[in-house]
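Subject: Interface between my chains keeps coming out wrong

I've been trying for a while to get a sensible model of this assembly. When I model each chain on its own everything looks fine, but I need the whole thing in one frame so I can look at the contacts. Pasting all components below, labels as-is. Any help appreciated, I'm running out of ideas.
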Amino acid sequence: MSHPMVEVRDLRVTFRSEEGPIYAVDGVDLDLAPGETLALLGESGCGKSVTMKSLMRLHPAHKTRIEGSIRIAGEDVLAMNAGALSRLRGKTVAMVFQEPMLAFDPVFTIGEQICEAVRRHEGCSGADARARALEMLERVQIPSARKRLDAYPHEMSGGMRQRAMIALALSCQPKVLLADEPTTALDATVQIQVLLLLKELQREMGMSMIFVTHDVGVAIEVADRTAVMYAGRVIEQGPIDSVMRAPWHPYTQGLLAATVHPGMDRRQALNAIPGSPPQLTRRIPECAFAPRCTLASASCHDPLPPARMDGDRLLRCIQPASAR
Amino acid sequence: MTNASSTTAAAAAAQATVVAPLRSRGYWATVWLRLRRDKVSMGCAGLLLGLMLMALLAPWLAPHDPAQGVMSQRLAPIGTPGHWLGTDELGRDMLSRLMHGGRMSLVMGLLPVFIAFVVGTGLGVVAGFFGGWLNSVIMRTTDVFFAFPAVLLAIAISGALGAGFANAIISLTLVFIPPIARVAESITTSVRNLDFVDAARATGAGAFTLIRVHVLGNVLGPVFIYATSLVSVCMILAAGLSFLGLGVKPPVPEWGLMLNTLRQSIYLQPWVSVLPGLMIFITSLCFNLLSDGLRSAMDIKR
Amino acid sequence: MNTPTPSAPLLQVLDLKKHFPAGRDFFGRPRQWVRAVEGVSFDVHRGRTLGIVGESGCGKSTTARLLMHLIEPDEGRIRIRGQAFGHGVGRHPLTALRKHMQMVFQDSYASLNPRLTIEDSIAFGPQIHGVAANAARALARDLLDRVGLKPDVFIRRYPHELSGGQRQRVNIARALAIRPEIVILDEAVSALDKSVQAQVLNLLAELKREFDLTYLFISHDLNVVQYVSDEVMVMYLGQVVESGPVAELYSRPLHPYTRALLESVPAQTPGERRQHAVLEGDPPNPIAPPAGCRFHPRCPHAEPVCAQQVPALRRVTGQQVAACHRLQPDSGYSRVITFEELPA
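Reply #2:
Try treating it as a single job with all components included. I did that and got this:
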């Protein structure tokens, strides 16, 4: 148990584009213990989804350069050939997307798609696969699951589709579940159902989970730990309770202060973070948040040193944590 | 952390960080810049420009009179001194005829598509923007034309109207209006449902203003690309009409017609005989490649 | 700014209704109707913000478009300062209506014409209303400055060159350019990142004071609605189920749906994690909505009467109104409770 389930070291992802390279992820370290849920928290364009997709190598190879190391269940993902990669996807690591309508093939029923995944990875008979598919639909609490097995994706409501997507992802009992904003497109009353379901399944099946979200509330609901990303870097990491109670990094502080909480005084303006995130068309050696930071000093524009550990928390900022 | 009072400062800082990267350029300027980087498109554009200049300046550039043949020099091979591209079955200089022929061929390739572009876009935009019964009337009418293959339609209309340059232009125009209207209609329908059109309607703008300011600007580009891709088809159809004797009449030089008359000499002078066909091929290929390049240059993402 | 409510409302909406055809048969006749908005009425007083919340398909965005007459309502009256607009009043007053009321959309990119510069986009509206081109352009510069974008930098730019937050500022400037009294904000900050969202919310608050605006704030984000609104209206499947002053509605929701909605918001601090989901299943399809109270199939308190009779929207306490049999003594509901018995 001492080995982490997912171990990412100095991950750098660069996309080639017509306008030149985009440094989407710039030196990310992550560890995920077995059975743990990590919330990858950040705003659009911060590299959280890119990081996730890199774990399964889902980026188009000819446009992407991935450097660093990714180990999942002890295996080196970046060194894998096509065969090993397809065994990894679905069997060891599975993914749930924001829009299940795009992840399902519209011409096959939900049951057929789950069966297909089960048979590919476990080589079992059609009947066994169907039994498994049914069991999975029941586990994700889809009502009248037997009937839903033969439903097409478009025949289901958004919430049911997302549940079916989860059933598909979990059908081969993956060790790691990657969830990319799976509840963002859902209505409030459905979102909480799906969040609680994911949490329950994760506990039951003993999976590790990485949950990408921009929503602080959602992160609090599901995660044990959180890693806050900004401009392609993890700038703060730690147990979710302590990070949320006492954020260290000025960006995390700003993000929490800018989020509207229930019962805020309306006569008081919100503590908005000035400015907007930088473009990642150039590599930013210094702290990318410095131009927006209220605590920034001259030395903040020097190259950013590696992250510092402090107990169970990690901080990527030159200002001492004790000063906060 | 400061608060309330800092919002204006925040806004000011908001601009400060994002100002630098790109100098503002208009849409078409950006398209032009992208197109300029595309070597194939620029090559094609250059070649087409050359062909047009050649056709335009044919009376001054051509070494011989295209209509005047010397019977003793019939079907001279390529490379004959004085007739570098040979002569045709009546002993007329091929180079001069090809240069002069380009005038007709290019006009017959471009003019119908241009007229069809104007008329078809108009019909399509009106049908797409207003929808309802107007849409049904316009689009169902164009559907009738769609029922026939383009070649057949062109031949039928030309046949009914009689041979001749003007009639060929009319028939080709009629052939290209329906597809252009169809494309314009579908693009208009999608543009009309975008929020910015609603936002403009919400300011109280009338239909004509909405079309002029907000719809046309977003529809013309894609329809134009589609129309450029039709130029090659049109040239080939025009050549076909002439070939069948439904287009221009001899002795006017035109590539399609030349191809027809030289057909009998294909075993005697194959290389000379294929020259008009080669011109048609090169020109239409250039139009197609340029249209493709234009399409990708105009495909600017957010 | 919280002046006591003046007597006459600025905007009065009466019994707004819209059914969309869903699927057509061979002869082009609608097979079914989507009952998108079913008898929505409300008042908004000058200088106030009415928050409209609800889940997808509840009709809140359709209501916005009906108010602007971007979609023609089937029925209903809209009055501004007592003057009737739109439906059945002839063509002309529509332009006048649009001078009083403007709208900001959710998708900041789709709501700007990609071929127009920022300046042209903002100056378009005033020119429609007869302002000379030069004056309209000067106005555009002014407004751009006012929404926190330097005119010299942004005026000649195109939408794709701006960030989401900047584009939404432009959309706000565009809406303000014809000096409306009422601005409908249809999920106007929902697509923005939280840090940018806060900037735009602050800007909206400043502009409201400066231009003496009245907002209709449509959003699915209950926290934001609580922060910006004076009154809140909750919609479910095309109908208003509850409305009232923000503090009362949030502290003691009357309708079981409002309660469920509030209890579904993810926790904002680790101590408040949700232990269970209040509601099961998804909101039903607005084609063929449930009979009686539309919420009854998901309601924990439903009784037979809820499936049979449509509850009327009635005042329960103070200015809080709700459409729920459970709170209406003569409804035939067996376990009617009073406001005081409702848990806070």
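Reply #3:
Confirming on my end. DSSP finds eleven helices and twelve strands in chain C.
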